Amino acid sequence: MSQHQEGINPGFETSHTLSLDGLNAQNATQIAEGLEALPWVDHVQLKVGKQSLKISYEASHHNIDEVIAVIEQHGAAIKDSWWSRTRLGWQRQTDENIKDNARHEPHCCNKIPRT
Question: 52-58 and 13-21 as β-strands: parallel, antiparallel, unpaired?
């Protein structure tokens, strides 16, 4: 995406796609509104026919588990399959790496790194 919401740091933005179960027209609207209400969420796209969610957010402030909590609050769930569980593990690791990188304080090349 070339345009970002105000306040989003594109260096810490991540995009995830989740396969869902129990997504319908009523709860899709509620889920989209709930996710868009979170600060630092850049883009939310729900496809009811494909039972999928694509979301972009700044991972230095959010993680995938917060997204899952909003989804489950409105009656849908993450698809229970091997592939979904594997991707969810990768997405959690990506979010954790981005959050760690956002907190990292670089040191000067001529100094000994702090321990």
Answer: antiparallel
Residues constituting the chain: 115
CA dihedral 91, 96, 97, 103 (to 10 degrees): 150
Crossing angle of helices 82-103 and 64-73, in 10° steps, is 130
Q: What is the CATH number of domain 10-103?
A: 3.30.70.100
Nearest Cα residue to 67 out of 53, 84, 86, 80: 53
pLDDT tens digits, 5-54:
666 767 788 899 999 999 998 999 999 999 999 888 888 999 999 999 99
Reading the block at residue 97, the tokens are 């790496």
Q: Are 48 and 2 within 8 A, CB to CB?
A: no
